[in-house]
Every structure is written in structure tokens, then in C-alpha cells.
Amino acid sequence: MTATSPATVPSMVRSLRPARVGIMGQKVIINIAILAAIWIVLSIITPRFLTVENLSNVFRQIAVVATVGTVVTLVMVSRNFDLSVGGTVALSAAVATTLADGGSPVPVAMLAGVLTGLIIGNANGFLILVVGINSVITTLGMMYLTQGTALLVTHGVPIYSMPDGYEIVGAGYLGPVPAPIIIMLLAVLIMTFVERRTLLGRYARATGSNPEAARLTGVPTRRVQWILFALAGAVAGWGGIMISSRAGGFFATVGEGFEFQVIVAAVLGGTSLLGGEGLVFGTLLGALIVGTLNNGMNLLGVPTFWQTAVLGTTLVLAVVLDAMLRRRARRVALKVTQGTPAANQSVPQAGASES
Amino acid sequence: MLARVPRPSPAAARQLVNLAALLIIMAIMASLSPEFLTTDGIANLLRQVAVVITVGGFFTMLMVAGGLDLSVGAVIALAGIVSVSLSNAGLPLPAAFAAAIVVGAGVGLINGFLVAVVGVNALIVTLGMMYVARGLSLVAGEGRAIAAHDPGYAWLGNGMAGPVAVMVIAGLIALVIALILERRLLFGRYTVLVGTNPKAARLSGTPVRGTLIAAFVLTGAAAGWAGVLFSSRMGAAVSKAGLGFEFDVIIAALIGGTSLFGGEGRIIGTVLGALIVGSATTGMNMIGVEPFVQRVMLGVVLLSAVGLDAIVRSRRDRPVRRVTAKVAQT
Fold it and tell me: Per the CB < 8 Å rule, is B124 touching A142?
């Protein structure tokens, strides 16, 4: 191999690899820079920002979005969407609070919430992978179904009287650290491990990059996608427990717009809508950016109405930046392949000489 | 060549199935509620469907071209606020209405530019624009309703032209324009080409970017007009107008057989889809079904419609696959 192509293969590898790793790396660096800039500006403008209490507030507010986002990121990496997580959050919260209110032990109620999510996730998997409906439509329909069922279960009436112990996962503390933050960090750690070190993570990426090629190389693409949907459902069910635990019960607007918050965090974090690309850690950063912006605007007394517009502008700017980065990377890659025509031919030769 | 893009007959079959579904739903509703098939009931149904149809025609063409616009609901709110505010400031009604349409077209132009020229995914761009437009309308309306002072403002939404509501006619005008674009002008063919295979379309001389941008602008303008109708119906502009409207339109289009991936879909299907959803919801309202149950039913209707479609499609493709497999063996 070294005899046939001493220069071309390494140079091609060197020129292609940074372009691919580079985009995610660049995005993480850019996001950390953006986050740092926002934090510095906010701590200069308002002394109330950089306090332990306020920062813990920021993290607590994003905890559920980031927790659910870790799995949704992998769903998106495998080239699918899950718009039903908001409805799942609502239905799970409805089921769990109704059970707890009716006298079931707290762990049983919580387990029922997670199971509800698991069932919804499996229903999504069945409809998408067996019946063959597109994931956007399936989960959109499931969103209506679950939201409606949540209100049906509770008759749309708020549930407030939660038994002792129900508040631990959402509003409790482990030592000085709020429990939801610990849960969020655990989720990020576990899913990063799944993403980087397990077959599920690699298969998800392979499936999302090129489903046909992945299937032909023996990746069980259907099972991978199904598992991810089931997992997303279960985690969304757990998210419903966290939200209702923090709020101390169920109210009719639980989970409204939640799916969009999750997708916005993932996209800000660099997850591609076309599948194949995305980082669990990036989604945490994306959620942090949105959370910090919201928190900062609250501290500065920006009317809530403006906050919606700012959130939208942030999202549009982020995706425009993403499109421009990608276009540049593509141009660089194009220039490289055009510049070294020999590189294309040397690869099969190298493979042939090896065998 | 452009004048004859072949239409597969399954598309027509699909519309017949939808028509049958519509008739069945109407028959069920009529048997459950005596009010349903009265002139009042029908007028109510048509008025409810009118706003969806106003946007739905252009929206279908946008989807056929491979685009999607989640910002239409927010544009309805923004356009309503613009037209009511301008009318209250003393502008004549036609000018205020035109301004609302221009605002909608402007949002559509930004969407189209970002999607077709910058190359950002349509779903995300229009999701961002949804937040921006909704945020602006919340800022402008301060979360309160702005009542229209001009007594003539409410005519479009509440007036009658003979036996027909003006609002229905206003919706039909938008629909007819869309139908002419789809069936009689090159634009309709272009959307199919762009949505089916953008690369082939570009190489055969179709203005791909122009078609996409025009589809976004038209959809935005239609949403602006829908905002006028909506605010006229209420006699006021509300910041929360059109909340979730984007899903109403998408569901109507999907039930009508429009593909999420572009290249497939007909306006008439969206109209049928809107009528199906509309008669189901108005019927359930009349019978007194709880709104929660209605939402569940909407989910079930959507899933069963597209599920049926997926099954039919896979059965349709199966003989082709068998033939190609046999060819591959030999």
C-alpha cells in the first residue's frame, strides 16, 4: 500500500477527515463561545445573573428538555423525527399524577408514567417501521392522540394534591445539588456513552447517513430505529414525571410546545435534520443557550412577548450559520477532490494490492 | 412535454376514496345530529373550512415543490394585527387588506430566500419564522385583542352575499387562483418537477429557485389574506389567532394525498381533506363531544388515513418489485 500510493492516500484521508469531524467540532466550539459570550455579557449587565442560585435555576429549567433531548438527538441522527414527546410528557404526567392522587405508591405511579411512554414509543416504532408511515406524520398524529388522551384521563382538571415523595425527582436536592440537574447530567453521560461506545450509537449514525448502505452492510436498521423510538418514548415518559414532580401536580398545558423546545436545542447543538449528524453533548449546549437567553431576558425584565421573537431569531440565525458552514466545508471537499484526481484511482489499487 | 406530466391513476382513486370517506362521515354526522344537514349547519361548516382552503391551495403546491411552511398560523395573527391597526389608523379597508397580504408575502419571501438560496431546511426556517411572527404579533398586540373601529371591517367575515357567506367566497377566490396556477399555468408543472427531482428539473431548464421562492411567497400572501378573514370574522385582531393552524392545513393536505417529500399532491385532495376534518369537527361539536376526545379522534383520523395510504402504496409497488427481482435472477 505504501508502495502504490505514498502521498495520495494519506493526503486524501487527511483532507477529508478534518472536513467531516471539523463541522461538529466547529459547532461545539462556536456554541461554547456563544454561551461564554452570553454569560459574560449578562454578568456585566446584571449582578443577579452570576449567582449560584440563578445558575442552578437555569440548569433546573433546561433539565427536562436536555434529558429528553439526549435520546431525541439519536432519533434525529437516525434520520427520524419524534414530535410526540410533548404529548407523551403530558400523558405520562396525567397517568402518574392521577395514580398518585388516587393513592398508589409513588414508585408505582412513576413506573406507570414511564411505561406509558414506553408503550407510545413502541406504537410509534410499529407504525413507522411495520406499517411504513413517515415518522413526522406518525408522531404528529401521536401528538394529538396523547395530548387528547392526557386531557381525557384528567378531564382537563388540574391535580394538585401529590403525596409525599412525589416531589423528589423534580424539586428535591441531593446534598446541595438539585435532583433534576443530576438526572440531566446522568442522561447526558449515559447517552454520550451509548452514542460513542455502543453499537446502537454507531448503527444510529450509519442508518441516518445512508439507510440503504447501512442495511446492505448488515446493520439491523429497523431494529435500531425501533429501539430509539421506544427509548425516546420512555425518556419522554420520565420527563413527564420530572415536570409534574417539579410543578407539584398536573395542569392542562403540561408539555405544550415541548417537542419544539427539544428540536430547537438539538438543532442549535448541531444535529442535522437530514440525519447522520449530531451530538448528545451538543444538544445540552443548545438547551443551555436557549435557557440562558430566557433566564437573562427574565432578569432584564424583557416582556415575555419579546422572548418568543428572540427565540425564533436565534433559531433562524443558528441554521443559517449552519448552512453556511456546511457549504464552505463542501466547497473545500470539492476543491480537494478536484485538485487530486489521482486520489480517486489510488484507493481501489491500494485495496487490491492488500488482498 | 411540460404540458403533459403524466398523472398516475392511483391519485384519482385516492380522491374517490376521500370523497367516499367524506360522504360517510357526513352521513354519520347527519344521522347523529339533526342540525348538521341544515342550511345553518352547512354554512357553519363551510365558514370553518374557508380559512383552511384559503391557504391550503397554495400550501399544497408548496408541499408538491418539496417545501413546507409552519409559519402560516403565526402569519395569520401578524397580518390580522397589521390590517386592523392600519384600518384603525384611518387607512381605507382595501389598502389595509393589501398591506396584510404584503406582510404575509414578505414573510414568505424571507422563508423562500433562506430555503432556496441560502439552503436551510424548510422545516426549521419556517419554525423559526413561526416564533418570530408570533412573537412580533404578541409584542404588537400586547397579548390583548385589538378591536376594529370601522364597522365595515367585519363584513368580510360575517356578511352574506345572497345565501352564501362572503367569507366562503373570499376563500374560494384564493382557491380558484391556486387551481388556475396548478392546472392551467406552467407554475403548477414546475412545482411537480422541482418536488420530484430538483436536479433533473434544473438541468431541463426549470427555474428551481424561482419556483420554490414563488411558492413560499404565494403561501405567505394567502396566509396574510387568511389573517384578514380571521380578524374580520372576530371583528378584532388577536395575538393568538391561527394557533395550530399550520397543522390543520398540513393534516388536510396529508389526508388529501399530498406527499411530505414533494412531487405528489393535488389541491382538490387538500380541499377534500379540509372538508373531512371540518365536517368531523363541526359534527362532533354539534353532538357535544368533548374537545379532548376530538383531538384524539383527529389523531386517529390522521394516522388511519396515512396508514391506509402507506399500505396501499406498498401493495402497489409489490408487483413491480417482484418483476425486478425476476429480471435480476435471469
Answer: no
CA-nearest residue of chain A to B255?
Answer: A137
Which residue in B129, B250, B294 is closest to A312 by CB distance? B129
Q: Where does chain B have alpha helices with state H?
A: 9-32, 39-64, 72-88, 93-112, 122-141, 155-158, 166-184, 186-196, 198-203, 208-234, 245-255, 267-287, 291-329
CB spacing of B296 vs A152 below 8 angstroms: yes
Q: Does residue A1 belong to any structural domain of this protein?
A: no
Distance from CA of A179 to the nearest CA of B (A): 31
- Measure CA of the first residue to CA of the last residue in chain B; give whole Å: 35
Q: How many Å apart are CA B297 and CA B309, to the nearest integer?
A: 18
Domain for residue A111, yes or no?
A: yes
Residue B313: closest C-alpha in chain A: A132
- A49-92: per-residue pLDDT in tens? 999 999 999 999 999 999 999 999 999 999 999 999 999 999 99
Tens digits of residue pLDDT in A190-229: 999 999 999 999 999 999 999 999 999 999 999 999 999 9
Q: Are A11 and A340 in contact (CB under 8 A)?
A: yes
Contacts of B250 in chain A (CB under 8 A): 140
Beta-carbon separation of A144 and B299 below 8 A: yes
pLDDT tens track for B48-90: 899 999 999 999 999 999 999 999 999 999 999 999 999 999 9
Domain boundaries, chain B: 17-289, 291-330
pTM of the predicted structure, to 2 decimals: 0.82
Residue range of the domain that includes A143: 8-354
| B78 Cα to chain A: minimum distance (Å) | 12
- Cα distance between residue B256 and residue B63, in whole Å: 12
A46 inside domain = yes
CB contact under 8 A, B314 and A145: no
CATH of range B17-289; options 1.10.3470, 3.40.30, 3.40.228, 1.25.40: 1.10.3470
